[in-house]
Amino acid sequence: MLALAGITVRYGEREVLRGVDLTVPRGQFLAVLGANGCGKSTLLRAAAGLQPMAEGEVTLDGGAGDPLVLAMVFQQIHLVARRTVLDNVCAGALGRLPLRHSLHPRLFPRDLREEAMACLDRVGLADRAHDRADRLSGGQQQRVAVARALCQRPSVILADEPVAALDPAASEQVLALLAELAHDEGLAVVAVLHQPSLAARHADRIVGLHGGRILLDGPPDQDVDILYQPQTRPEPAKSLS
Known about the structure:
Elements: E1 2-11, E2 14-24, E3 29-33, H1 40-47, E4 55-60, E5 70-73, H2 85-90, H3 110-122, H4 138-150, E6 156-160, H5 168-185, E7 188-192, H6 196-202, E8 205-210, E9 213-218, E10 238-239
Parallel strand pairs: 3-7, 3-8, 5-6, 6-7, 9-10
Antiparallel strand pairs: 1-2, 1-4, 8-9
Helix pairs in contact: 3-4, 4-5
C-alpha cells in the first residue's frame, strides 16, 4: 500500500500541491489525471522521494514480511542503448548488489540473470533478451522499463506519463500490462496520464487533480471534464466510489 498524507510542495512562493491525502491499496491500478501544471508529476515525484516536500508524509506498507520497495517508470525510458535488453533489466537490481556489479554487465550473477529473464517473460519480451535495447520499438522499450522496475521487487510502481511518446497500440499494451501487474502481482500501481479515455479503459480508479488539490476520486467511468475547465478555487475532493 502507498499512503500520502498532507503532501504540500512549493516552488518558491507558488504552492504546487496543497495538503494532498491519497491511499492506494495493493492490487489497484490508479490513474492520475488533470490539466498541465496541476501537480500530477510533482505528486509522483514527491511520493518517490525525488521532490522535496514542504509538508506531508509518504508511507509504504508491503504487508507482513514483504520488502518495502517503490519503483519508478518514466516517460523518458532511459535504457542503455548499446547494452542488451537483459542487461538493462538486471540494472534494476543494482541497489541491492555490491558496487562492483555496476562496473560491467558480465559481473551480474547468474541468479539475477534468471530473475531478469523471468521479468522479461512477464512483459512478453523474453525472446528479445539478447538484442540491443536500441533495436526495440518505443512500446517494447517501455515494457523493458517495466521489467526493469519489476527486477527491483517493488511493492509499488509509479509511472509518470509512461505512454506519452507511444503510438495508440503501444499505449494500450503498456497500460494493460500495468493493470495486469496490479491485479496479478498484488502491486499498488499509480500512473500519471494525459488521456482520459485510456484511463477509463485500464484503471480501476481515477484521481483528478486541479490546482494542486484532489478534485475527483472515484471509478474509471466518472466524468472528468471538470478537471480541464478553468477554476480559481477548487473544492475538496468529491468521492464517487
